[in-house]
Amino acid sequence: MNQLSAWVPALCMMLVSLISYVDRNTLAILAPTIRREAGLSNEDYGYIISAFSFAYMVGNPIWGRWLDRIGVRVGMLAAVSFWTVASAAHAAASGFWSFGVARAALGFGEGATFPGGLRTVMQTLPPEKRARGVALAYSGGSLGAIVTPIIVTRIAAAWGWRAAFLFTGFIGAIWLAAWFVISRRPDVRETHVAQPATEPAEPIRVADPRLWSFMLAYALGGLPLGFILYNASNFLSDMLALSQQTIGAVLWIPPLGWELGYFFWGWVADVMTGSGTARIQVERRLFTILMLLGLPLVYAPAVEPLWLVMLLLFLAMFVTAGFIIVAISYATHVYSSSRSGLIAGIGAGSWSAGVMLLMPLFGRLFDRWRYDLAFQFATLVPVVGWAGWMWLNRKAKSEI
């Protein structure tokens, strides 16, 4: 198998994560229009996002364990089929409860996205390329967040917001047809992950502080991602009085930072942590740099030029990508690659738990026009995640 074809499965995972973020971000982009038509407050919207996040939190470790057992070929066919139907069902929603149910179903199905991506990378790429493989597979989410404002805003303007959700079902069906063919490859059908002889094979234990440090770095370091994805359109509409069309024209900019961040930090993680330098020391430095780079987000509600607001959101999402990639790199070296699906599920599930708990709070603050407090809180959360990771790893060995 040549080097180019070895990357095809990871590329497929990039495409499915792209589709998953088009599916989940369509509601976020069209939120100002849908809230007005359905009579929803920001707090109502926050609870609807929490319904997705709760189901996503539950679905991630469940799908992760299933994918580790039955493989990514069958597992991803089942998951994407389920969430494609759920996404298209949003077109029939009309109020709080119907959106909540459709959102929960979508969240559970999409829980397979990142476990499937990480599992596929671990079993189809060699260890020295895996961080970049994870960056490629995960980057579909950021790419989806980039293209969603451009595509769905135009579809909604031409045919209404319900047509945008029917479009999400259409692209899911196309991916399923392609994956049915591509996943016949032997390395994709395989249910065993080859791992170096030096790689530990210890189980994932709830009492292990390294597991909790991973969850803190991923969930709290990655919190600004959910905050910006789900709240930016409402912030730009309510505070800056931008139209739905203008929001669609500019809201691709912050996720571009997320996209570039995945590849940049994936490269950094491969080069720095694979050089023979003590891994834990490198990860400490990287997490500290990321924590400091995330602090300017707090100024977003206080600046006036739209370009500067976009720049601050861009930087925040660039930093968020680094927290996720470095956290995944850390966890996949602490634990066996054979548990990569579960590792990804735990990470994404913990992130979703944070979003689930905080989205109603952010919505309540937005309803009260306390954008300053909302952004302060979103900026502080990664600092807590950094501090927790540093504290829990204070006695870690110099190398893992």
What does this structure look like?
- With 400 residues, the chain is mainly α.
- The protein has a single domain, classed as Up-down Bundle (Growth Hormone, Chain: A).
- It has helices at 3-6, 8-29, 31-38, 42-70, 72-89, 96-110, 113-124, 130-159, 161-182, 186-189, 209-221, 223-238, 244-250, 253-273, 279-293, 306-334, 340-367, 371-392.
- The longest helix has 30 residues, at 130-159.
- The model has no long low-confidence stretch (mean pLDDT 86).
- Helix/strand-derived category reads mainly alpha
Q: What is the total number of structural domains?
A: 1
Give the rounded overall mean pLDDT: 86
What's the Cα radius of gyration?
A: 20 Å
Concise account of the structure shown:
With 400 residues, this protein is mainly alpha-helical.
Describe the secondary-structure layout.
Elements: H1 3-6, H2 8-29, H3 31-38, H4 42-70, H5 72-89, H6 96-110, H7 113-124, H8 130-159, H9 161-182, H10 186-189, H11 209-221, H12 223-238, H13 244-250, H14 253-273, H15 279-293, H16 306-334, H17 340-367, H18 371-392
Helix pairs in contact: 2-5, 2-7, 2-8, 2-9, 2-12, 4-5, 4-6, 4-7, 4-17, 5-6, 5-7, 5-9, 7-8, 7-17, 8-9, 8-13, 8-14, 11-16, 11-17, 11-18, 12-16, 12-17, 12-18, 14-16, 15-16, 15-18, 16-17
Which tags fit this structure?
400 residues; mainly alpha; Growth Hormone, Chain: A; globular
